[in-house]
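As described in the Methods, two query proteins were run sequentially through the folding procedure within a single session, without resetting any intermediate state between them. The first query and its resulting structure tokens are shown here.
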Amino acid sequence: METRASTRFVRISPQKARLIVDMIRGRKVEEALSVLEFTPKKAARIVAKTLRSAVANAEDTKNVDVDELIVTRCWVDEGPTLKRMLPRAQGRATKINKRSSHITVIVDEKQTGQS
């Protein structure tokens, strides 16, 4: 039975977060957490926290073996963008987009014997 966890309105651009999410998709949970631990990106800490939340949800709500969990699906959606202006020379202004993300991680038990 699959279990999900999501983190919403995270102040990191979806493009940067998707790089990290692509690294853990399809891996075992313990392997994914070790990959995230040694990835020197801000998004890695956020995705690791979401992954640990999904594992805790699975452990709490369903009778599953945590060692057999794999990251079946994970994705990053775009959240709302904060629009800011930066003053420039000669009275001009430049628009700055401060993007946010919604991160979703789904874990499930590994199906043994099925191929």
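Immediately afterward, the second query was submitted; its sequence and tokens are:
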Amino acid sequence: MIYAIYVLIAFSVFFALAGVVGMLRMPDAFCRMQSSTNIATFGMLGVIIGGILYSLCILDLNWGFAIKLFCLGVFYIVTNPIAGHAIAKAGYHHGVETVEMVCDKYGEDME
């Protein structure tokens, strides 16, 4: 079971590393924000699931800790994409510079 915890943490490290590379290589703020949202969502997801497994297997069925981590994971998965969308919408309204957009449905709805 300890190997499953290691795999989940490696999963998180991979997504965090990929997100950092994406933040460095993306051309504009909106693309970089998508990479940072990936870091926050998928990077923490593996750590939280690994923590749940750790609390149940290594800490001799510490259910209170596992339930707290599960609630934290659900809250994190629900709120992080919403927060990223709200920040992107605010950036769009304030005229953050972007590379050429192929499709701008949000701008069409605002007119």
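The radius of gyration is 18 Å. We note this only descriptively and draw no conclusion about the first query from it.
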